[in-house]
Amino acid sequence: MNEIICPNCKKAFKIDEAGYADVVKQVRDSEFNAQLHERLELADKDKNSAVELAKAEVVSEYGIKVASKESEITGLKEKLEAGEIAKKLAVTEATGTVLKERDSLTSELRQAKQDKLSASELAKVTLEFEIQRMAGKKDTEIQELKSHLNGIEDKHALATTTKVNAVEKDRDKLKNDLEQSRLQQQLSEKSLKDKYETQIKDRDASIDRLLDMKARLSTKMVGETLEEHCECEFNRVRAMAFSTASFKKDNDAKSGSKGDYIFRDSDESDTEILSIMFEMKNESDQTASNQTASKQKNEDFLKELDKDRMEKRCEYAVLVSLLEPDSELYNSGIVDVSHRFKKMYVVRPQFFIPIITLLRNAAQNSLKFKSELALVKSQSNDVTKFERQLEDFKISFGKNWRLASEGFEEAIKRIDEAIKDLEKTKEALHKSANNLRIANDKADDLTVKKLTNGNPTMTAKFAELKNGDAPE
């Protein structure tokens, strides 16, 4: 069981590792689902806008084609007028056939209604008979159940008496066991009391011995003792719990400062799971010039530790501190100070291994969500690739549409010119036909009498010709 400090009310409550993992999982699940839904909604919106744009372009192209087809239909309507009579005749014949089929279906429907009515009456009579039969059967079953219930009640009374006797025996036995347990508990309490009194005396002696040793140690020796303690604790459990982890001193002081130790852990594929920057601080870690100054506090080292964490690219920062030994906040267990600095904790030396275990378990649980997030990112890349391909398609489609549109305009222009030439030819043919009709009318109206009228010479010639032909 571990104690957690609430960042709002500053109250401590206990929680086991499974509960802690559940809390972390809930937070990660909610954040992951929110990001996932946001990405999916953005992808759906972009996809819908792209589809609507493509639809608008297709509709525009279709409108141009429809306009060209309507001009062709106008020309074809004149040819179809000749077939209207045949079409009306076919419609009349089809209407007659439909009327015959309607009359046939009406008679079939009327017959089906009559059959349905007869079947409904038969079903009603059958249902009434079945209801009467089921009612009789249920009455018989009720009588049988009543007789069976009376027999069960007699058996139940006998069984109840037997059970009561057995319970009374168990009660007496439990009373005897309870008395024996009380005696044993009293003996155990006395034994534990003696044991704890002995342990308290030993602890007080150890505290006095450690205080005496602490007073004799120099500042450097005390600090190194805390670091050596943490390193020894880690090496003691390394083989069992942290076989793939590294715990090394931070010797890189290029940036002007460095932490004490860096913990890094990776999985089998050499993917880093967790990294922690550690800083160890003891109450006696002060130089001689600071001995007369006020005692240092844990907050004095948090800013520098956060700077070291970011420069060494560690995910978490932990201050293992013996400062402020009388503080109830830091003596209560693992203290989360992430409200001051991101992903930072302050612990006592006895919580050095537990804080690593908790953070490593949380990181392993979050590894699954990281892989899912990587999958979502790859899907986002697929969406971006799709958008890019759609944009390329739109550009090439627009180019082809522009070329096609120019071709359509050129073809329509040539068709208009051809139509104008044909109209001129048609007009000339009409004029020629009119002249021919006038000439024909004049030819039909032409006679010998009209030709010789007022022309004595031609009248005499035709008379001679007529008289000369008569003897023949």
Account of the protein in words:
The structure is a single chain. The chain is α/β, with parallel strands linked by helices and 472 residues long. The chain has helices at 17-80, 84-216, 219-241, 299-311, 328-331, 352-445, 448-452, 456-469, and strands at 2-5, 12-15, 245-249, 261-266, 272-281, 316-321, 335-336, 344-347. The strands form two sheets. It has a six-stranded mixed β-sheet with strand order 3-4-5-6-8-7, with helices on both faces. Strands 1-2 form a two-stranded antiparallel ribbon. A hairpin with a 6-residue loop joins β1 and β2 (12-15). α1 packs parallel to α6.
Keywords summarizing the entry:
472 residues; six-stranded mixed sheet; two-stranded antiparallel sheet; 8 strands; 74% helix
Topology:
Layout: E1 2-5, E2 12-15, H1 17-80, H2 84-216, H3 219-241, E3 245-249, E4 261-266, E5 272-281, H4 299-311, E6 316-321, H5 328-331, E7 335-336, E8 344-347, H6 352-445, H7 448-452, H8 456-469
Parallel strand pairs: 5-6, 6-8
Antiparallel strand pairs: 1-2, 3-4, 4-5, 7-8
Please count the helical segments: 8
Q: Strand order, biggest sheet?
A: 3-4-5-6-8-7
Low-confidence stretches: 215-223, 287-293
Proportion of strand residues: 5-15%
In percent, how helical is the residue content?
A: over 70%
Radius of gyration: 54 Å
Q: Please write the string of helix (H) and strand (E) elements.
A: EEHHHEEEHEHEEHHH
